[in-house]
Design brief:
With 312 residues, the protein is α/β, with parallel strands linked by helices. Among the domains are: 85 residues, Rossmann fold (3-Layer(aba) Sandwich); 121 residues, 3-Layer(aba) Sandwich (Rossmann fold), CATH 3.40.50.720. It has a six-stranded parallel sheet with strand order 1-9-8-7-5-6. Strands 3-2-4 form a three-stranded parallel sheet, sandwiched between helices. Strand 5, helix 8 and strand 6 form a beta-alpha-beta unit. Helix 2 packs parallel to helix 11, helix 7 crosses helix 8 and helix 7 crosses helix 11. The longest helix has 30 residues. The N terminus is likely disordered.
Amino acid sequence: MTNAHMPLTSEEVAGRPSSPSDVTAGLMRGTELAAEVVAKAADRAQAFQQRTGVQPCLATVLVGDDPASATYVKMKQNRSKKAGIGSVSVVLPAETTTDELVAQLEKLSDDPAVHGILLQHPVPGHIDERAAFEAIDPGKDVDGVTMHAFAAMAFDEPGFRSCTPGGIIRLLEAYDVPLAGAHAVVIGRSPILGKPVGMLLLASNATVTYTHSKTRDLADIVRTADIVVAAVGRANFVKGSWLKPGAVVIDAGYNEGNVGDVDFEEARQVASLITPVPGGVGPMTIALLLEQTVDAAERQNETVQQAEADLT
């Protein structure tokens, strides 16, 4: 699927908006699109291995024993395996220091057998997370968490995208949501979600307003948005009454009980399109991670080949 609407069920088609007073949002499902992205990445991984004899490899680094983080890492490793991407797992104790974590990430960065590195976040509170992220070689930052990746997104230059923001843009494109000239309101300003998704929307010629916990009259600002990206980390935070009729709503939150940042039932009565939780943004995050791991393997191989050619 490329720049085409995902197929809707008959119930969803019947519920698409006919007027602002009679709106039931269609669902922007990420599951099907993510499956297509992963399938293409798997084909490329297989072709790369056949061509070079090397399997693309993703290294995952987990600090501590948080059950949710461990589950996420295991899921990413399983998805990697199914896509023909090798996986290296590094599990460090919760008492790991910043210096020890940085040393481990630098070691992986220097390992030619590793093409992509994922540091599962958040890390324990005593660790300087930014210092850890910056220890990742930008060429292996397939999760798009370094300052180099953010700069690439901000300046619309080649580089790895933060996976969730990149997945959001792909989802909007797949559903033919017009971005040029649209007013997008981002609720949240984290360096790996809120800030980069705003940069990517800006690069697509949207007009972007960042909002956050200290924003005054937040509901009034959200009500002006054609596109709302909720990434605040608070369950059911965005209410249906906050939305402009026909707005497109991207719920990038995931809270306890499989609940997003948007009050789904309320919002669905006002929006034209909305991502469900789960099954919306989440699958796209992993899909982009795997796709960018294959990208990294190909780029690193090209660099090695060029270096060898320069020596001859």
